[in-house]
Write a structure and sequence with these properties.
The protein has 217 residues and is of the alpha+beta class. The chain folds into 2 domains: 3-142, Jelly Rolls, CATH 2.60.120.10; 145-213, Arc Repressor Mutant, subunit A (Orthogonal Bundle). The protein has helices spanning 15-22, 77-85, 106-115, 117-143, 146-157, 167-174, 178-190, 206-213; strands at residues 27-29, 34-36, 44-50, 53-58, 64-70, 92-95, 99-105, 162-163, 194-197, 200-203. A hairpin with a 2-residue loop joins strand 9 (194-197) and strand 10. The mean pLDDT is 90.
Length: 217
């Protein structure tokens, strides 16, 4: 199958590691598929070859927050925690578009960690980068104003000057309630910064949004 040769972000592993990895068949994952849920046992280490997976955490109130996204060449910190620390999944992973992934079973993963320094460094580097991004998320949610997070989200998600997402989906992205997002978007619309329609936020004044996104906490 030789999927290692086309996988983004993989370092040069030992030949025996590459041969073993290439014997694992990539899996097609349809859009909307739930890859894991809270409380499930981690079965293996996932490498995303194509598509995008989003990992969410749900509170007791039922409100969700987007923890991180897994793009091609990246890995999932929840899977790494489960494989190395024995913890079950605490979040939920959803394929947000058609994906292709490879699942490295636990026993093979642990063998690579012991026997291939390049593989071990890849896992630890990805783990560290993901933890750093989650620290940034914690900083934004804890210390940045909702307006700042909302403006930054709209600018980052815009395609062709518009964000195609519901208020509830945007709320998950920035870690707040849908009602809060609706009120803030209405305020931006009244100022002429955005225009609202069903399932879409069109950016009218990108410069004003950029200034809001740059405001201190």
């Amino acid at each position: 199958m030789n999927w290692c040769a086309r996988a983004a972000g993989l370092p040069p592993f030992l030949p025996a590691t590459v041969a073993a990895l290439d014997r694992l068949a990539p899996i097609a994952v349809p859009e909307g598929t739930v890859l894991f849920r809270p409380g499930e046992t981690v079965k293996g280490f996932v490498i995303v070859l194509r598509g995008r997976v989003e990992v969410y955490l749900t509170g007791l109130s039922g409100r969700e927050i987007l923890l991180y996204e897994v793009a091609p060449g990246q890995s999932c910190v929840q899977s790494t925690l489960g494989l190395m620390g024995g913890e079950d999944y605490s979040g939920e992973a959803v394929a947000r578009e058609q994906c292709e992934v490879v699942l490295i079973p636990r026993e093979i993963f642990l063998r690579f960690m012991d026997g291939d320094p390049a593989f071990r460094n890849f896992v630890f580097a990805a783990f560290a980068a993901r933890l750093q991004s989650m620290m940034h998320l914690l900083d934004r949610v804890a210390f940045q104003r909702v307006e700042t997070r909302l403006a930054a989200c709209l600018l980052a998600r815009a395609e062709g000057g518009a964000v195609n997402a519901t208020h509830a989906e945007i709320a998950v992205q920035i870690g707040t309630a849908r009602e809060v997002v609706s009120r803030r978007l209405d305020a931006l619309a009244r100022r002429g910064i955005v225009a609202l329609s069903r399932g879409q936020v069109r950016i009218i004044d990108a410069q004003a949004l950029t200034e809001i996104a740059a405001l201190p906490g």
